[in-house]
Amino acid sequence: MSDKIVQITDANFQEEILNSSLPVLLDFWAPWCAPCRMVLPILEQLADELDGKVKIAKMNVDENQVIPVQFGIRSIPTMMVFQNGNKVAERPGALPKPQLEAFIKASIQA
Questions:
Q1: Is 77 a catalytic residue?
Q2: How far apart (Å, rounded) are the C-alpha atoms in residues 28 and 78?
Q3: Which of 36, 43, 61, 67 is catalytic?
Q4: What 3-state class would DSSP assign to 3?
Q5: Where is the active site (predicted)?
Q6: For residue 29, what are the domain limits?
């Protein structure tokens, strides 16, 4: 996985997501989830292309239970965009790169 993708845990969620100076795309995922694995190369590309503009992050729902429950995650992958410490958008399911990129850009324009 790209070193530009931040691994989020229940312990570092506050610091990495809510206190981030950049908008954040957070992917809730699990290793056994095939659609989640399909999204990874797209997230790696976006992490490179949006470096310095948007933080790309992933949270393994099997290893972290508090935050996924807090946000009512029922299916994975689920993508959330956070800006200035607030969740501004949510989208369940795997998206192709053009749609995921459009989702991010529309979310941070709001």
A1: no
A2: 5
A3: 36
A4: coil
A5: 33 (nucleophile), 36 (nucleophile)
A6: 5-109
